[in-house]
Amino acid sequence: MTDPWHMLSDDERLLCEMLERVVAEKIAPLAAETDETACFVSRQLSVLAEFGMMGANLPERVGGPGISAMALLRAVEIVAAGCGSTASAMTAHFLATDTILLGGTEAQQNNWLSDALTGKTLGAFALTEPNAGSDPADMRTRAVKTSDGWHLTGSKCFISNGGLADFVVVFAVTDPDAGHRGISVFVLPKETPGFSAGPAERTMGLKGGHVFSLSLDCHLPEESLLGEAGRGFKTAMQVLDNGRIEVAAQSIGMAQAALEMATTYAQERVIGGTLLSERQGIMWMLADMATELSAARLMAQEAARQRSLGKRFTMAASMAKLHASEMADRVADAALQIHGGYGYIRDFPIERLTRDLRIMRIYEGSSEIQRNIISSHLLAERRTS
Ligand code: COS
């Protein structure tokens, strides 16, 4: 089979090979225990930090490795194939640092990113609210100007890393009459008085990547506003464009792991004197899984290619996320089916993978939201042509 990552530079290829080894040796072996204990993936993030991965999304200008969007896609895929929870916590951190990179001034970037990119500090991205998930423009969190800064009040939910992060980027309405142009973004350290997090939610999967509700009644200094007031919504959307390619990467990494589990099982399991892998029904299932996976990877690579051009790539990112997350569910389901009854037993990792994957169709914009975005771009293109 030809190498699907032929476009990576020699340095990026080497980096990815080393990452694969690190993940196989130090992260993947912890995945089952992490799922059982629901213990946050701190140890795994330390391993990634040591390897330089916690700043992998950042350019050299701010001290990051400056790897291409394509190499970042591959790197997230590798981590997700080893442990979905770790990939999820890592990419949640990327959402926070991307927000500072895209929304903050140079001084704010220098102030917050130097520790975040080495993994010394962990970030969280707080956009979603109990009544504003799919439509963040309808958020209720408010930031009111005071004589020396801002008074931030409100609550957020489903915030990955939220209660464990050292800093949180928080989106809030600063001008209630201005719709999405009245939303701004702030950054605050976890020690901020009036900031608190509830207990980690009890989730179906990704049990090592904790998700929290946050409560805010905080007085913030002037400089906690990232960039200019009113730019928060656009920054959030740009960050989510990046994030959706990373969700596609997580889905592809986990689907690849599911395909490998199914293939190994089919080549070992004998029923009625025949290996499963010699039965045409199973062979066709494996063929469909591999084909779907390959198509999703090509779409994600196309989104990453467009990202690297520096132009808007919203539609490609949404398509990649939509297709990869739905593909991954189908591939994992087929892999579980090939395992028969054993697939339903927790000793087999396909059971965990199937649960871990389910959120991919929901977070960072559900499949339904991606369809809205894709169709609105499609129809707008038609109107202007
Ligand atoms: N990049 C840059 N600008 C963007 C953008 C993007 N990806 N998406 C929207 N914008 C801009 C638009 O260009 C528009 O700007 P102008 O006011 O200058 O014309 C503005 O933002 C509003 O755009 P639009 O009208 O499309 O926004 P909507 O309020 O209709 O937003 C969607 C619709 C579905 C795109 C948005 O609500 C969304 O993505 N929702 C899902 C949120 C999500 O993923 N939540 C999960 C959070 S993390 S787990």
Could you explain how this protein is built, in words?
There is one protein chain. With 385 residues, the chain is α+β, with helices and mostly antiparallel strands. The chain folds into 3 domains: 10-116, Orthogonal Bundle (Butyryl-Coa Dehydrogenase, subunit A, domain 1), CATH 1.10.540.10; 123-230, Beta Barrel (Butyryl-CoA Dehydrogenase, subunit A, domain 2), CATH 2.40.110.10; 234-384, Butyryl-CoA Dehydrogenase, subunit A, domain 3. Helices cover 52% and strands 14% of the residues. The chain contains 11 helices and 9 strands. It has helices at 10-27, 31-37, 42-51, 69-82, 84-103, 106-118, 232-268, 280-308, 314-338, 349-357, 367-384; strands spanning 123-126, 142-146, 149-160, 167-173, 183-189, 195-197, 211-221, 270-271, 274-275. The strands form 3 sheets. The chain has a 4-stranded antiparallel β-sheet with strand order 2-3-7-6, with helices on one face. A 3-stranded mixed β-sheet has the order 1-4-5. It has a two-stranded antiparallel sheet with strand order 8-9. A hairpin with a 2-residue loop joins strand 2 (142-146) and strand 3 (149-160). It is globular. The two termini are 40 Å apart. The structure holds coenzyme a persulfide.
